[in-house]
Specification:
Elements lengths: L12 E4 L5 H7 L4 E4 L4 H15 L14 E2 L8 E2 L11
Parallel strand pairs: 1-2
Antiparallel strand pairs: 3-4
Length: 92
């Protein structure tokens, strides 16, 4: 079907990281989805690093906040003191 002047078609969905449920809608419509991460690179790198610790190294990231010392996070300039570790980091 030819596009008519003034008509448009959906070529993809761009969703915020908090609206990832829309990915299912896009899949039903057979349209690609792009997730827009609204934070800067440091928190994204932190989340990815925690996921790597949990999955690749089988480490319980919930218990890290009660540890002593510092954690070297690749996306941070300086090491993160364990006392500053967010309490209740979700184990996703």
């Amino acid at each position: 079907m030819m596009n008519q002047p003034g008509s448009s078609r959906v070529v993809g969905f761009v969703v915020d990281v908090f609206c990832t449920g829309m990915i299912e809608v896009a899949n039903e419509l057979n349209v690609p989805t792009y997730v827009f991460y609204t934070y800067n690179a440091a928190p994204l790198g932190f989340n990815l690093y925690l996921e790597k610790l949990r999955v690749d190294q089988n480490q319980d990231v919930i218990d890290l906040g009660s540890s002593k010392g510092e954690m070297v996070v690749p996306s941070f300039v300086t090491p993160l003191p364990m006392q500053a570790f967010p309490a209740g980091v979700p184990d996703t």
